[in-house]
Each structure stands twice: as C-alpha cells, then as structure tokens.
Amino acid sequence: MDAITQPPVIRLHPEDGVVIARQVLPPGTRVAPGIATAVRIPAGHKVAVVPHAKGEPVRRYGQIIGFATEAILPGQWVHTHNLAMGDFARDYAWGVDARPTEKAAVPASFEGIRRADGRVATRNYIGIVTSVNCSAHVAELIAQAFRRNPLTGEDPLAAWPNVDGVVALTHKTGCGMTEGEPLRLLRRTLGGFARHANFSHVIAIGLGCEVNQIGGLLEEQRLSGRLRNMYIQEMGGTRKTVQAGIGFVKEVLAEANRVQRETVPASELCVALQCGGSDGYSGITANPALGAASDLVVRHGGTVILSESPETYGAEHLLTRRAVSPAVGQKLVDIMHWWEDYTAREGAEMNANPSPGNKAGGLTTILEKSLGAMAKAGTTNLVEVVRYAEPVTAKGFVFMDTPGYDPVGATGQVAGGANLLCFTTGRGSVFGCKPTPSIKLATNTPMYQRMEDDMDVNCGTILTGEESVQQVGERIFRLMLTTASGQRTKSESFDFGAAEFAPWVLGATM
C-alpha cells in the first residue's frame, strides 16, 4: 500500500495541549487553525497548540505529562527547556475499567516443543548457569566448544539439528554480597532460568568459596535433580572443569535432540513486553501496535508480561483501573511507592529515567514516557502483579516489578517463564535474550530502513497511514506464532542473547 498524505502533526486526544511532529517541521509550518511553528521542530517532538501559563499542566494522551516551567505560547516547541515534572493526585479507581475478556472464536496455534512436565518451549537450548562471576570464563569456554564458526562454517552441533545451541549465562555478582534480599533475588533469577522450558538440560558452575553456594541455590529454588553442578575448586581447576562440562554436553546432546515440534494452542504463549531506545513515536506506533497484539495473545488464552516499573511511574493509575481486584491494584501502587523511596535513598529521582536518546527522540519526562510505554500491554484486565523473576502462572496481562534498564528487565521476565519477547525501539536498540527469541519492532520507517538487519517489524507504516494500529498488531501476532514455531528472528541471526543476561543487583557490594 502506498503512503497516504498525512497532516504534519498528530493530535492524540482532544484535551491535549500539544501535538506531535510527524516529521521535521520548519518554522512557519501550520499545525492548527491560525497556529504555525515558531521555530524548527524536530521529528517526534511536541508543539503547543494552546497557551500554557507557568505552572499549568501540559497534556498528551489526555493525561498530564508535566508542568510548564515558563509561559508557553501556541506554536512553540515544548521540551526540557519549558516542561518539567511535578506532583499531582492520581485517581486509582480500582477496577472501574475491568471487563470480561472476549475469547477468540477460533483458537490460534503454533508448533511448539512439549516438555515431559507439560510445559511448552519455543526453543531448545542446553544452558550453563554460573553461581558467581569467578566461574564465568569457564562457562564461556564450555559454550564456545559448541559455537558455530561464522568464518569457516564449522558447526559442532550439525549432527544435532534440533538443538538450538549451548548458552553460557554469566554475570558480575554472586559474592561480596549480603545474604538477605540481594542473594534471594539472584537465586530466584538463576532458578527461573534453570527451570526454563527452553532449556532441555542445564549445568550450574561455581568456583567453590562464593556466597552464592550452588547447594543453597538448589535447596532454595528446589532444583535438586534438575541440574548437573560443578565447583571449579573441587574439579581440580579450569581445564578439568571445562573438560567435564564439555563431556556433560556431549553426553546429553542425543537426548536433547530427540524433541519434536507439535501443534499447541496459542494459550501456551508467555510474552515479555519490552521497550528500549524509545522516541516520540513509541507511544503512537510500535507500543500500541504491540498492545493490539497483546490483546490477541490474551484473547487466545495466553499471557503477556509488562514490566519496567520506573517506566510505568505516573501512569499506574490507568492500570489500577483495569485491575481485577483492589488487592492486585494495590500491589502495583506499593511498587511505585517502593521506587520513590529507593530513588530518594540513592539521591536520584524518578524523572532521571528518560535517557539522552529518549530526549533526543522527543520524550521529555518520565510521565510522558510511561504513558507511551504502558500501551504495550493493550487493554485487557490486569490479573496479577509479581516480584522480579517470580514465576508467572496466571493467564492474561501480568505486571512484573523490574528496573527500566532493558537487559535487567528482560532477564527478570524470562526468569519468570516468558518463552517469547517483543521489544519496541525508536532509536534502534539491538538486543536478544537467550533462551527466549526476541522480536524487534521499529517505531518509524527511517530507522527501520537504516537498521533493517536488526528490525523484524516496521511499525512506521502507522505514521504514514499505510496501516492501522490494529493491522500492525495482527501482523505482530502472526509473527509471534511463526517465531514460536521456530522461525529465527533478526537478533537470533546475529547470535544475540547470552551477553545480555543481567540479573538485578541490589544492596552493597563488599
């Protein structure tokens, strides 16, 4: 479909005092009746269409995104020089927008891998988890022995075509840490990956003298019998541990390769929703399109996980209105209060979240960013709120408490059981999260064309009028099904996903 001529700006809600530049707007560009731009407006940035007195709230999406720090006239650029955060009352209105979810008339399906315990995998990896950074290099040496050489084409796994790879999940902690919540959080994360359906077999490798003892991990996470574990000190050093680890992988390859894909219902999908490198278009194109796809996942009986608590801050009152109970809504509000206290203790503020790239793309405050980010979760009921890396067992829309930093947030979601990940980006984030495949969604066509090797879906067609949000959402949902069936994503073609493993580190490093 050819692009349709569109007006130069986008007005998202009748109550908005700003509009969004569809492309770069030269001075004098007409943006509303009797209103023209006073200066050059970058693409994706905001232009005032009503006057704002100093201290007056500025609205986008019909919601407050900040307060004018000086008088703003119609036609002026609205950004960090004249817009800032401010406090305002939220009406949580527990559950007033909760509605029964309409189920799909014809259930969708995909070709998944049914494990012996009934869970469904979308990929089939052998995993290596590390208890501490001191065992990271040994784990990586084991994984390297089974990695395809892109120069020679040599593939050590060629004889086992149903095995997607051997993944070493390494991190920078595990010792020099307190044994309270920081250790429990790390163990919950490692336990979630060790249990993940996308791993057929898992080795745990430690040094031997660390705080995060593998025995404690096995007991706390009830992993006994699930893992083969090794301590470098007990094995006799690096070489012997690497040889033993390679031997274990070779021992289980035949068993891991015996899997067969079979038709399973789309209700087996558990989709992590992420955004990174957001821009002014994220809340207009890719995020709402992913929200439309999320609604389809839920309608077909599956699960979607929204996270990034700091990037929900200021918009949480819109999610509590969709909560199935006041108790579920209160869990979300309690999380936001924890983050307020946490950032205050660290001498930071919630509005520190928008990155330089976010601001260059047109986002000014965390309120504005959050309102666009929450669109990824669509419109269905909020059925549960869970802690970081907790197992997600509910069907429907679930919120998980995580930082806004993408690798840390996604690590928690995958630890919770996500077998598919969708990642929206406006600036061009590159990302993977093994063992879960990652689908990349571009917010705008210029970036998609510039980084087509990394992007799976162009949502910029919404801006040009070629497709509706719903049409792109349906396209994303179909890609979810084919990806879950084994089709490789762009990030998988570059072998992304091991280095991005990043557990949330809490507490002092000692």
Defining key terms:
single chain; 510 residues; alpha/beta; 7-stranded parallel β-sheet; 4-stranded antiparallel β-sheet; 14 helices; 23 strands
Strand coverage percent: 15-25%
Number of helices: 14
> How many runs of DSSP E, i.e. beta strands?
23
Low-confidence stretches: none
3D shape: globular
Derived structural class: alpha/beta
Average pLDDT: 95
How far apart the termini lie comes to 59 Å
Can you give the helix content as a percent range? 25-40%
Query: What's the main sheet like?
Result: 7 strands, parallel
- In spatial order, strands of the major sheet run 19-20-18-17-21-22-23
Describe this entry's structure for a reader:
With 510 residues, the protein is of the alpha/beta class. The protein is built from 14 helices and 23 strands. The strands form 6 sheets. The chain has a 7-stranded parallel beta sheet with strand order 19-20-18-17-21-22-23, sandwiched between helices. A 4-stranded antiparallel beta sheet has the order 1-2-5-8, with no helix packed on it. It has a 4-stranded parallel beta sheet with strand order 13-12-14-15, with helices on both faces. Helix 1 packs across helix 5, helix 2 packs across helix 11 and helix 6 packs across helix 13. The model has no long low-confidence stretch (mean pLDDT 95).
